[in-house]
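Hey all, sorry for the wall of text incoming. These are the two entities for the joint prediction.
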Amino acid sequence: DAKTTQPDSMESTEGETVHLPCSHATISGNEYIYWYRQVPLQGPEYVTHGLQQNTTNSMAFLAIASDRKSSTLILPHVSLRDAAVYHCILRVDQGGSAKLIFGEGTKLTVSS
Amino acid sequence: AQTIHQWPVAEIKAVGSPLSLGCTIKGKSSPNLYWYWQATGGTLQQLFYSITVGQVESVVQLNLSASRPKDDQFILSTEKLLLSHSGFYLCAWSLAYNNQAPLFGEGTRLSVL
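and here's what came out:
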């Protein structure tokens, strides 16, 4: 079964570039990798996603290993607003269903 | 664009009382819908998912039930609340074989006293 593994927590300082890793060693060829972030008592907010190629947007850069067994979310120049739990999620499509596989999430702490 | 509306935003209920939480999707038909539960400070735990009207699969029941009476509606309920039901409930939307990212609602905070 698909599974994602993330470190429980990471600490950073404002202005730093943060690398958040996610292991998905059992990923299959058609499973998308999604990253979301969540602050307490709010729904997860979309950050980015990818299938095979690295992707970039205004929020982050997603680096996907060539074998797709891991990915890293890179947050440039973090600010206090980037403090959140970051979820690495796989979407497993089978028949008509789209199963969402969550890991434990990484709690990112940002200090000034 | 798709939107998810969850109701109520927050509830305070007594142990043993009934509960009904709702989720409505706008903007896409035949979505996969999900219910998640999160204890305070805890991880997201999937409770139910549904790929079509009238069809719901249980992942972890926690003495709760779910129904999908319409294509765009997903309901979570119980007849008797337990203290352990307290927490944060999230509804989510996704489509299979589609590049669109899953969408999460804003959640319902439930306190059982």
